[in-house]
């Protein structure tokens, strides 16, 4: 007897890029929505859509874009006032 082929995945991904606009990237992470503006997160401004969409949630709190070498902690997105250091070119 053979098992039936598994169906499509129905669970929601832990992190999803829900939009890219001229202003930044919209992310849905663990039930919360975040806007990563290009002004505050310039690493994404010249990235391709494909590179932006290849994001991983690791350990339930770190967002990683391996192709862009970007690593962000969710806490810094949820409470930016606690992380005042900003990127300066």
Written description of the protein model:
The chain has 89 residues and is mostly beta strands. The chain is 11% helix and 33% strand. The protein contains 2 helices and 6 strands; from the N terminus they run βββαβββα. It has helices at 49-53, 74-78; strands at 15-20, 24-29, 32-37, 56-58, 62-65, 70-73. The strands form 2 sheets. Strands 1-2-3 form a 3-stranded antiparallel beta sheet. A 3-stranded antiparallel beta sheet has the order 4-5-6. A hairpin with a 3-residue loop joins strand 4 and strand 5 (62-65). The protein is globular. The N and C termini lie far apart (62 Å).
Helix content: 10-25%
Main sheet record: 3 strands, antiparallel
Instruction: List the uncertain runs.
Output: none
What is the count of DSSP helices, taking H or I runs of 4+ residues?
A: 2
Q: Strands of the biggest beta sheet: in what spatial order? A: 1-2-3
Intertermini distance? 62 Å
**Secondary structure category:** mainly beta
Summed over residues and divided by their number, the pLDDT gives a mean of 85
Tell me the fraction of residues in β-strands, as a range: 25-35%
Radius of gyration: 16 Å
DSSP strand count: 6
What spatial form do the alpha-carbon principal axes imply?
globular
**H and E string:** EEEHEEEH
In short, what is this structure?
The chain is mostly beta strands and 89 residues long. Helices cover 11% and strands 33% of the residues.
Supply the key terms.
mainly beta; three-stranded antiparallel β-sheet; 89 residues; globular; single chain; 6 strands; 11% helix
